[in-house]
Amino acid sequence: MDERDGARGARSGRPSLAVLPSALVVSVLLLTACSGGKDRGSSTPPMLDTGAKLPDPCRLVGGEMVDRLVGPSTVVREKGGKENLDCRWESRNDPSPKSKSPSGLLQVGAFTQSKQVKSAEKYNDAKIAYQAAQLKKPCAPVRLPVDEACWQRDELGLHVAVRKGYTTITISYSAARSRALDEHERERTATALATEVLKNLSA
Fold first, then answer.
1. Is residue 21 a contact partner of residue 77, using CB atoms and an 8 Å limit?
2. pLDDT tens digit sequence for 1-36
3. How many Cα neighbours within 13 Å face the side chain of 188?
4. Are 158 and 170 in contact (CB under 8 A)?
5. Pairwise CA distance, residues 104 & 67, whole Å
6. Helix (H/G/I), strand (E/B), else coil: 88
7. Tens of pLDDT, residues 92-122
8. Where are the domains of the chain?
């Protein structure tokens, strides 16, 4: 598969999955600071380093799974901030209805909480990111050895959110002519993606 850096929008028109949680976290930290703690004269609350490392989202899904879901693809690495990165695999298959191969988009966003407000609940920002990563519909639990994981259907495919400690991963997958998105296969596909991400996150 080809690989290139870029910041152009995904074909589906969706916003970057990793940016939203990060923006929400910044807002929460500002609200915490404004509400004041023990030191009301300080502009920001006391912070601690979490020691958590931001994973490379382009390494969280293996080539075999990418090929099965979107076929031959181009990898686009989004330039994120210190706490978030985003990666997309865009299919290079023929998008016309005459083609029999899947043609679509797989997007993985990574957010890692690098700072912890000393007086706040542990993993607080990562938990906020996990909630922000979910769509409005109910998110069905995925049974994995992580703190939280769930998946949802959307109009174009499926959506997965996974949190392990200070790191939250979001996965969005949509494609035409993909058997992995057949109604009876979607949950299995969501579980397979979450499992793949967890395996590579722990590597």
1. no
2. 665 554 344 444 444 444 444 444 444 443 344 444
3. 8
4. no
5. 11
6. strand
7. 876 666 667 788 999 999 999 999 988 889 9
8. 16-35+42-202
User: Is residue 130 within 8 Å of 163, Cβ to Cβ?
Assistant: yes
As given in the structure block, the two tokens for residue 19 are 């940016």
Tokens matching residue 154: 């959307």
Q: What is the DSSP letter of 77?
A: E
CA separation, residue 185 to residues 114, 139, 179 (Å): 36, 17, 7
Question: Strand, helix or coil at 95?
Answer: coil
For the ranges 31-45, 104-118, 127-141, which has the lowest average pLDDT? 31-45
For the question of whether the overall pTM of this predicted structure is more than 0.85, the answer is: no
* Among 18, 37, 135, 136, residue whose Cα is nearest residue 82: 18
Contact by Cβ (8 Å): 133, 21: yes
The two three-digit tokens of residue 102, written as one number: 């899947």
**What is the b/e burial string over 9-26, where b = at least 16 CB atoms within 10 angstroms of the residue's CB?**
ebeeebebbbbbbbebbe
